[in-house]
Structure formats: C-alpha cells, structure tokens
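To whoever is on call:

I kicked off a structure prediction for a single chain this morning and the downstream step that reads the tokens threw a length-mismatch warning. I double-checked the sequence; it's 341 residues and nothing unusual in it as far as I can see. Pasting both halves so you can look.
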Amino acid sequence: MLHADRLAAFVALGQRLAALLTPASADELTELTARARNNNPWFDAPNVRAALDGIAYLLREEPLRQWAARYPPEPDAPRPVGVVMAGNIPLVGFHDALCVLLSGHRLLAKLSQDDTVLMRWLLNELVQLEPRFAEAIQLVERLNAADAFIATGSDNTARYFEYYFGRKPHIIRRNRTSLAVLTGRESDHDLGLLGEDIFRYYGLGCRNVSKLYAPVGYDFTLLLDALQPWHRVLEHNRYQNNYDYNKSILLVNRVPHLDSGFLLLTPSAQLVSPISVLHHGAYANEVDLADQLTDVAAQTQCLVSAGGLYPGSFPFGKAQQPGLTDYADGVDTMAFLAGLE
C-alpha cells in the first residue's frame, strides 16, 4: 500500500466521521456513544461527539496532505511500532495511530481498558474503508514484537516504560497539564470560552486547563459568573461526587477558596488540580509571568489566553482542538517515525 492510498483512506475516515455526526446518522451515533459510556462512564454523549468531531477536523484532506508532505512518504523498511494508548479522554490515542500508519509502519496497539470501544470501532472503520490496513494493525496485550515504542502515561508509569522500552527507540510521555493566562481585560465572552478548556471531558485531559495565572488583585467573580453555563457538569454523578468531596476537604482544612456551586477556585502553587477544582496563581507584571511560565514549561502541555494573544498560546476555547502539528509534549511523532530508518 502506497502513501497515496494510506492518505486517501484517512481522508475517507474523516468524511465517515463527519457523516456520523449528522442528523441522518443519529441512531448509529447514539448506539456507539451508549456502548462507549457503558465501558467508561466518563465518556458521555457530548464528550464522545466532541472527540469524533475533533478527529474529523484533523482528517480534512488539504491540511492532512500538507502535513504529510513534510515527511518521507515511505519508510525504507516498515517497522512494528508499539503504542501504549491512554484512556483518560475519548480516542486520545488516535493521533499516534494516525502517525504510525500514515508513515508506513505497522501499528501494535495496546489499548487502554478505559477506551476500548471507541478505538476498536475507529480502527475497524479504517479497515473497512481500506482493507489492506488489516495487515498493518494489530491489537495486542504485550509489545514484545515492537521495534520502537510510543507510550503515554503518568510519571509513575513512565519509569516502568523506561525500564522495559528504554533500549529501543521510544517516545515516553509523562504527566502534563494546561494553563491559562488572564490579564483582567477579557470580555465576558472571552471568559465564557475558557469554560471549554476547563470543563470539556470533565477536566480529565492533559489539555484541560487546571491552573490560572492572573494579575495581583484579579476579581475572580467575573470569571465564575461567565462560567455559569457549565453548571450542567454536576449532572454527571462522578463529577458531583468529586465536587462534594473536594469541597469538604477545602472546608475542613480551612483552605481559602471560591465556590461557584460546581467549581472550586483556590490559590495553589501546584499545577495539577483535582476534578472540580481550579488552581490559580498571581503575577506582578509581564516579566514575573514569563518567569513563572518558564519555570513550569516542562510540565505544561499547552497554554491559553484570550484570542491567543499571549505568545505561544491557543485562544480560549481551543485547547481541546489541537492541530496535526500540535504533538503531545512537543515531540514530533512523525519525525521520530521517519528516523527509524
């Protein structure tokens, strides 16, 4: 199978997903999302739809062709590449699968137990569109046959991955989170958009904002008012349980915080916040902000600001819509695969 064939298959997959999200396919989508939620209660219909829509967006023909053209079309020798996929948000492992298969290598995928339904369904759809992919895709429990590895996990599992995979070419990803910069000049509309970065996937993704950086003296009630439309997150019993638990911890320990009724905002030096909690820190001026962000750059997945005006940031509301070149942890997966020659 040539590069052009692989590319055409992924374009067709994007079109398949776009069609699935139309009213004409409502019954099929409802059945798929129900199965996904039965497997993982966090994967409710709005979040599954958001994940599928994001992948359909990635697989638009022209951007996909332009991205693929940056890399060698064919490997000298296709390699079996083991991919340990995460399952914290729906289909989070798809970009790695896309890179391995489009680059001409063979995919050995170890799926997360939290995301088996959607990943199996999506890879099966790809094979239905291009049957020759059946020889290039294998779902496995062990990765002994792999010549290279891409593994996503926590800081703890990263040590495990290093021990087992460290002697072969590898990308090993660790804990990261995302941050937002506030200036005090944001409109209510801007602040409302930030809700997508905070609450989409219930805050479980590394691209979810878990900490805010705001000027000294910033009035956070403006933000909490703008986020009120997201109160529906409390309809999920697991989110509600986390909110109730974390609220009780803050109250018992007398930790200063603001409470919107569904989100707890508290000052903290920590980057990663529990579900339903958002940390914040203060900066005195732009130099102070730049210094603080530099100190945590290695733990930052992405940064957001109103309109994307802060250097290197996404606009509010776009953290969960990465493009093809927005590689996890900033490591170019396609360049890594091209280097396996």
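Update from on-call: the warning came from a stale cache, not from the record. Cleared it. Sanity check on the structure: The first helix runs from residue 3 to 20.
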